[in-house]
């Protein structure tokens, strides 16, 4: 799939793979790493508790069943996390962290600064926000560089919805997926679309993604953005889950009870075996991974949550890491639409390599899950 095999930055790829192996080993197999994971999980859980107080104040009188309502218990927490993210951006805390992490990543890997900054930015912000932060650089991006920044956006997740993920799947695997996916997206994209630019061309001017003029405006903007995200996710879940049921009804009628998930399980099973999933569980795991690709991560996480008690810890870890990314068909439209708004010509190019983008981001998720599986 590489557009220029002779220009592949093998040194950078090796450095990033070693970094992935070290991070995963450190977080899973050392006491300090476990302490850090527990500490971060504790912080997220506390934030979820605070967010729940706000949800309960507004919806405290609403009577729900024993299992609650997914929109109330999970999605509305996104509003609080988006507010925190907006405030940290306004206070220049996140831009400071992103700046120096991006510089460090560029230095150790040899990747251009724009691609490195965008990869780090994508850990904290959603696909659209991460790309908008580098919109002033789009005029300097050739097709290969455009592919890399788009792949980083698709291969990551937004910090504003990590809290929702933690309500669904084991925290330790969600948290380790964040740095792993950053590296994996860059590794795969650097193979598919290598870049080789001069130092004069390697300039970056990252724009502040916050337009707020005051602390309280930042809070308000974050809350509104979080509300939009929650409604978008809820709308997509309604559409995708309903559509999945419709497709399964058709499959069941034509193929005597066979479902789309079962078909996807058979397609992905060979790769699942290579990733380290036990043979007896690979069909079910492949079905979940396939569901995520054709729908989105929330649909797959909801289905996988019901399976966790019946599969091994290795499968739980591998599949959870795989699911923690935006690599799915709907993301092609989101990224292409964002780039279209920034630069119509480049938006058309992103649409043109959309399927290649999805394949690269999915391979990145598989790489992250495989590395995580080595240490489980």
Any descriptors?
0% strand; Gate_dom; 18 helices; NupC/NupG family nucleoside CNT transporter; mainly alpha; nucleoside transmembrane transporter activity; 376 residues
Task: Describe this structure as you would to a colleague.
The chain is mainly alpha-helical and 376 residues long. It has one domain (5-374). 75% of the residues lie in helices and 0% in strands. It is globular, with a radius of gyration of 20 Å. The mean pLDDT is 85.
Question: How would you concisely characterize the structure shown here?
Answer:
It contains 18 helices and no strands. With 376 residues, it is mostly helical.
Give the helix/strand layout.
Elements: H1 10-29, H2 31-59, H3 70-75, H4 77-90, H5 93-109, H6 113-124, H7 127-132, H8 143-155, H9 159-166, H10 171-192, H11 215-255, H12 260-275, H13 282-294, H14 297-305, H15 313-323, H16 329-342, H17 344-352, H18 354-374
Helix pairs in contact: 1-2, 1-10, 2-4, 2-10, 4-9, 4-11, 5-6, 6-8, 6-10, 8-10, 8-18, 10-15, 10-18, 12-13, 13-14, 13-15, 15-18, 16-17, 16-18
